[in-house]
Amino acid sequence: MRRLLSAYLLPLILHACTGADWCYQTQASCESHCKGPDRWSEVNAECGKTRQSPINIVTKKTKLDERLTPLKFTGYQELFDSSVKNNGHSVQVSIPIKATVSGGNLEETYKAVQFHLHWGVSGGPGSEHTIDGEQYPMELHIVHMKQRYSSLEDALKDPSGVAVLGFFYEESSISNRKYDIFTHALRSVQNTNENTTLRKISLNQLILPEVNMTNYYRYDGSLTTPDCTEVVVWTVFENPIPLKSEQLLAFSALKFNDGKAMVGTFRPVQPRNGRVVYRSSGAVVVASAVLLLASIFTAFGLSHLN
Ligand SMILES: [Zn+2]
Q1: Is 116 designated active site?
Q2: CA atoms of 235 and 218, how far apart (whole Å)
């Protein structure tokens, strides 16, 4: 009996000790043996390549691209029922309807597959992308793949097979009522592999009206979790979605697969390695208008008015 037990248990123990699983920095510790972000290239060599995501977007180094016209959406207004799941690393919602994005210099039409989020510790910094070094409290990723593929597996073989739309959140003093259904559902998926049904939600209700869909950044990158596949055309929107601190905190009540609080679910920013980040004509206009006014005031010797 003892021999039988060890025959079964030994591989399990060895697996836990060698730590083949990846995890976020908040989970990586001597006891957990999982591989934190600095060791993801041991999980998959692709994580150590040169067009990785997320990145810090330095706005003054972005390049204006007139081809980045407003994106075209279909199905984003449609209400659907879906399953929301705690997958051990995040909370993920599958998109069972046909919702697509095209235009804005995307090569072709991409269809939405799922969305998930990345957040910090108790409403603290938690977005994956950062803008001029600023990390927002949370980031939404709506994952799309080229419409012509029937599986994500096929799309992952195409260097531009996946398009992810990234949206930031900011803390607001007012509750965002359109998120109530979603944040309430989180109570039913606190543990890994739990899922529940989300009723009557639409993609638009997550992002509108706060996000100005014409202001965004574009660059070529990767998935931000192993296997870190370098197939993603990233669109990162400039305007954040407001959420009250209680709503942001609802995400920190979830638990990782090891039972610890699911917090700090973001990969640190990766080297840009010479990649150009393009901006649509709407992005960072406010900042340039302020600078322009400031220079006009200065030119007329009216700088004391600032
Ligand atoms: Zn993501």
Answers
A1: no
A2: 5
